[in-house]
Design goal:
single chain; alpha/beta; Rossmann fold; seven-stranded mixed beta sheet
Length: about 220
């Protein structure tokens, strides 16, 4: 039976949703490895909408995270509430500020952040049965609140974000853009992606390594 991976998105666009290149590279590598996947996103309103040309908040505009994520998934997407760990062998979360704004409140609250209950419940089910969990870019900052303290993760080398991870009881490991950090005991894999990448090929190297390692862990 073909392996199946759930991919959880947080909108569409680096500044207010899921990072498009990170998502696309993840789906590409899964497909190259012959792994099936299904995208999921919470059916909630975005924290705010960013004009990606100016970088400014688009006032009086609102968007839905699930609807926006459907753009990335070419319409093939389900509400996060429908995600059942029993149906998948692993789960991966691309980054983008949507992870820090829509899936959690990290962008505003830092180490005092809250994570979306729906997301926490979904990942707890994967973690409990030791199915591999992959996170990239800023999404990795959620691990101490999503899973448990003491899990080794990376966002690269940003002192502010790594400090917040430590403040929440997490273990941050400095990592180059093309590499990954693996917590074998907890079966969690992370990579810096666009926390460090300056071009798409840099992000691709680390993301492909993450997906490859998730693939290996699904066999164990």
């Amino acid at each position: 039976m073909t392996k199946q991976v759930a991919v959880i998105l947080s909108g569409c666009g680096v500044f207010d949703g899921a990072e498009i290149y990170e998502t696309t590279l993840t789906l590409l590598r899964l497909d190259q490895l012959g792994i099936g996947y299904r995208c999921f996103a919470p059916d909630v309103e975005q924290h705010h909408v960013i004009d990606h040309r100016s970088g400014e908040v688009a006032k009086n505009e609102s968007r839905n995270v699930l609807t926006e994520s459907a753009r990335l998934a070419r319409g093939e997407i389900s509400a996060l509430s429908e995600l059942a760990a029993d149906d998948f062998d692993a789960v991966i979360l691309p980054g983008g500020f949507g992870a820090a704004k829509n899936l959690s409140s990290f962008a505003e609250a830092g180490a005092d952040m809250e994570v979306l209950d729906e997301l926490k419940e979904a990942l707890a089910d994967f973690h409990e049965v030791r199915k591999p969990i992959g996170l990239m870019c800023i999404a990795s900052v959620m691990v101490p609140k999503l899973l448990s303290p003491g899990i080794a993760v990376t966002i690269g080398q940003d002192p502010g974000v790594s400090g917040a991870i430590s403040a929440m009881g997490g273990l941050h490991r400095t990592c180059a853009v093309e590499d990954i950090v693996v917590d074998f005991e907890n079966r969690v894999v992370t990579t810096p992606a666009y926390m460090l990448a300056t071009r798409i090929s840099e992000a691709a190297t680390g993301i492909f390594k993450l997906v490859d390692r998730i693939d290996e862990m699904m066999d164990r």
